[in-house]
Specification:
The chain is mainly α. The chain has one domain (6-185, 197-411): Growth Hormone, Chain: A. Helix content is 83%, strand content 0%.
Length: 412
């Protein structure tokens, strides 16, 4: 009889998240190539890229409630087959709609990974959720680094086609599919603790949870909206935009690896306030930086967005535990939904800003530089709003225990 092996489950979860992240990194590099190859506007490319986030949201909305019913392993089978089908369809795409569908399937697969793996990590490490969710999510920026470097060498150095770059994904997909298929999975924490489905749903309509969902819209859009458009936004700053992308994600991976001491010192609410402040400063600096100074600005931005996603999940899992797998998947779905919405807007802002610069007499390179800077300035509004929101959260809840906070949430 198979035994549950927490380390095997955790490491394979990390591998599946690396695949998810690599799809983001590779897409960030080849979005501009799609525009050229298929004669698409930046808004159309943004719609295609946004489809990955719609698919992610769809998977989390459907997969979240099903995790407790069908088990985490079956949801990960959906992820495996979705990744295979999405990558193959993307490779053989010849126009807008096949790209759209292939990106949608990859998004559904990515969402299925998070739908299963977030509650899996929270279950096998129930005593240190925020710390281990940060370590798990370390592999999102870690996978972005891997994907970004692979994209840089295959596209920028070896001049291979983007189709070959997409094909690389099939190797880690096959590996995580094999390891998960041979593993035994535990019941989710909600099932094992005896919390009813009704109690879980009730917990998901509490005021604190709704507040966190609204904040998730802004944290995810700040981090992932910027990263998906980074190759375009920083095209003319004088350094390789994809290397800036790799640098940002490298800093994020290191920060999440050592999240434990930061959580202990600041607590989750303090971490979120700290993150919002640094994200706003980083975006402002990026909107004015050029040359190698761009890496310094990127460092500040990376420190800001580093803890956003896993700490939002960790806060909900620790302080509102009855929300269970559904709560984590609502949070993840809200985050990806916000990115799906923001990406076409960012593409449209960039196109309009570039058109204005050209009308003002700027040459093409200068217009692209100014368009990127103006778009980053607009994005900066989101972390500024978060500074206010997280300051309120921090000062209201900093002296309240998780037990008392949970009780207040359930009786509100």
């Amino acid at each position: 009889m198979k035994q549950i092996q927490p380390k095997k489950l955790f490491y394979t979860s990390c591998l599946s998240l690396i695949v998810t992240a690599m799809t983001f990194a590779i897409r960030a590099r080849i979005m501009s190539l799609w525009g050229t190859d298929f004669t698409l506007s930046n808004e159309q490319v943004g719609i295609i890229a946004g489809t990955a986030f719609w698919g992610f949201t769809l998977a989390q909305i459907i997969g979240g409630p099903l995790v407790d019913v069908v088990g985490m392993k079956k949801i990960l089978y959906v992820a495996f087959f979705g990744h295979i089908a999405g990558v193959v369809l993307t490779i053989f795409s010849l126009s807008f709609w096949p790209l759209f569908l292939g990106t949608l399937l990859i998004g559904i697969a990515n969402g299925s990974v998070e739908a299963a793996c977030n509650p899996l990590v929270a279950t096998i490490y129930s005593g240190e959720k925020t710390k281990m969710l940060n370590r798990f999510h370390m592999w999102f920026p870690g996978g972005n680094v891997i994907g970004g470097l692979v994209a840089y060498f295959m596209i920028d150095q070896l001049a291979l086609s983007w189709q070959w770059l997409m094909g690389i994904l099939l190797v880690p997909i096959a590996l995580y599919g094999y390891f998960f298929s041979s593993a035994k999975f535990p019941e989710t924490e909600r099932v094992s603790s005896g919390v009813s489905y009704g109690d879980m749903l009730k917990a998901c309509v509490g005021p604190l949870f709704i507040f966190m969902v609204l904040c998730m819209f802004l944290t995810a859009a700040t981090e992932l909206g910027t990263s998906q458009w980074i190759d375009t936004l920083l095209k003319q700053v004088g350094v390789s935009a994809i290397l800036v992308f790799v640098f940002i994600n490298g800093i994020m991976a290191i920060g999440r690896l050592f999240a434990g001491p930061v959580v202990h010192r600041l607590n989750p609410a303090g971490m979120l306030l700290f993150s919002a402040i640094f994200a706003a400063i980083g975006l402002y600096w990026l909107s004015n930086a050029s040359g190698y100074v761009t890496f310094a600005a990127a460092f500040v931005f990376a420190i800001g967005v580093c803890y956003f996603w896993p700490t939002m999940l960790g806060f909900v899992s620790e302080y509102i535990p009855k929300t269970g797998a559904i709560g984590l998947n609502i949070m993840g779905g809200a985050g990806m939904l916000s990115v799906a919405v923001i990406l076409p807007f960012m593409g449209n802002w960039y196109d309009n800003n570039k058109a204005k610069a050209l009308q003002a007499g700027a040459d093409a390179a200068t217009a692209e530089l100014q368009a990127g800077r103006d778009t980053l300035t607009t994005v900066m509004i989101m972390p500024i709003i978060l500074i206010v929101a997280f300051a309120i959260l921090f000062f209201v809840y900093r002296n309240k225990s998780k037990v008392n906070l949970h009780a207040e949430t359930q009786t509100a």
